[in-house]
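We close this part of the discussion by returning to an individual protein. The amino acid sequence and the backbone structure tokens for this protein are reproduced below:
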Amino acid sequence: MLKFGRAASLAAAAFASAADAQSVSFATLPPGSILHAQASVIARVVQDHSKLQVRVIGYDGDASILDAVNTQKADFLLLDVGEVADAYQGQGDWKGKPKPSLRTAITLYGSQMAFWVKKDSGIGSIADLKGKRVPSEWAQQTGVLPHTTALLNAGGITYNDVVKVPEVNVVRAADDFKAGKLDLLFFAVGAPKVAEVARTEYYFSRVNPAPNIAGVDKPSRVQTIDVVVAAGTHVKDDVVYEFVKAMRANKKALVDGHPNFGRFDERTAGKRQPRLPQHPGAIKYFRETSS
């Protein structure tokens, strides 16, 4: 009877624990993108260090991700802050179509993005891209267009100077680059696809050669924008609080899952983004933990 009673109490405790756990959905880009890989790591860390159960959902592009959170089909998202802020403000691709339910939860790090070419391409500068096949339009991932436009402008040229090749998203473009259909790849530094083959939020940072970064053979300055976890206003304050707390308090676990989290600075995780308000649950957490 004693053994049976103990087994029954353990089963009851396990059931109660499962019942206490709350499931949340985490929207990001499709598998093969750096953000999907990182969202999977974040989900595991949050689950290991809170009562939340996190389900990662890969969407075809930014528009679907932002719509999902704004319409309560998903709870959290992982994207660069520029596109999220544009959607919230109803600017850029979202002009006249604001997404008012988006809020910042936590700022992770500056996402370093760059143009990539093959070593034997003869392309040594952005100006050399004149007349070359460059990905454009980005039908499913509209947030990429301002990045590529800004980088071309930085080199003194525009999309009118290149051969525009319509692409759906960066993962598909990477496949086309690998197949020789493009002369240029635009992708995040350190992304799995790279190894396989100008908003107010922009700033520049340096990337140095490293074993985990394919294609970088000398120190380079690259366009950078903050990556954030955002949440919908429908998500309860205590849920956002626990999500943010689990991430900020467990940087080592994040880094063990993906090296890019080495740039995650817990001291600036509560950074206020200029065009996107912060979720009340995040405000409460960072207010309580600020020194």
